[in-house]
Design goal:
It is a single chain. It is built from eight helices and nine strands. A six-stranded mixed beta sheet has the order 3-2-1-4-5-6, with helices on both faces. The longest helix is centred in the last third of the chain and has 17 residues. Pathway: Cofactor biosynthesis; thiamine diphosphate biosynthesis.
């Protein structure tokens, strides 16, 4: 049997297809995984921003997680937008006893600037970062979580993404407890079509880990996938457009 790695994405839905659950499904599928979802919230959004959000109940999110794990099983999990502190704590409760890779993308604000996590939800991220083998904050998210010193003191493994930092070179830093940081650099791809980059990176890392790759290798391959998707962006929308997942082979 040609069994694909089973990847569960716990995240919000993006009606425009560029980020969230939709980006995760595209990424996992194109990379050879089997995508499953536990939807936390439904958003009305496009390249210009989020116009409406409805968060599901924690019980419904839990039911989706249980349904996937109890029957099909799971090899790796990606966590994205959670929608509420109650959901965040429930997810932490559900995943605490599982021995498998968990990638946590601490989504707080959309690419277009819409707030997607309140203060109580961000506070609940502490438990998820402790469970995850890797947390993937961008520049603003890392600052909101306390910065390098705080995360390092807590023994949290994370990759500090540099796509939002100024400069012609993008610098990503992998920081793991007790190890020297590993750094990747690449020329910046000048484009406004960056919607869903964080979702895509985290779900790609989860997929490669589900296939058995070591963490650093999974990150390197995921970065390559994101860059290829950026270069293949179809040019849709008036704002921060979606990437070209479909064109990456």
């Amino acid at each position: 049997m040609n069994q694909a790695p089973r990847i569960l994405s716990i995240a919000g839905s993006d009606s425009s297809g560029g980020a969230g659950i939709q980006a995760d499904i595209k990424t996992v599928t194109l990379l050879g995984g089997y995508a499953m979802t536990a939807i936390t919230a439904i958003t009305a959004q496009n390249t210009k921003g989020v116009t409406a959000v409805e968060t599901l109940s924690a019980a419904m999110v839990a039911a989706q997680i249980d349904a996937c794990i109890s029957d099909i099983g799971v090899d790796a999990i990606k966590i994205g937008m959670l929608g509420s502190a109650e959901i965040a704590h429930m997810v932490a409760d559900r995943l605490a006893g599982l021995d498998l890779p968990v990638i946590f993308d601490p989504v707080m604000v959309s690419t277009a600037g819409s707030v997607l996590a309140d203060a109580d939800t961000v506070a609940a991220f502490e438990r998820l970062m402790a469970i995850a083998c890797l947390t993937t904050p961008n520049v603003d998210e890392l600052a909101a979580l306390g910065g390098d010193e705080v995360l390092m003191a807590k023994g949290i493994g994370y990759i500090a993404k540099g796509g939002d930092a100024p400069g012609e070179t993008v610098i990503d830093r992998l920081v793991l407890p007790g190890q020297e940081p590993q750094i990747w650099t690449a020329p910046r791809i000048e484009t406004r079509h960056t919607h869903g980059t964080g979702c895509t990176l985290s779900s790609a890392i989860a997929t490669f880990l589900g296939q058995g790759a070591p963490l650093a290798e999974a990150i390197e391959d995921a970065r390559d996938f994101v860059r290829a998707a950026l270069l293949a962006a179809p040019g849709f929308g008036e704002g921060h457009g979606p990437m070209g997942h479909h064109a990456v082979r």
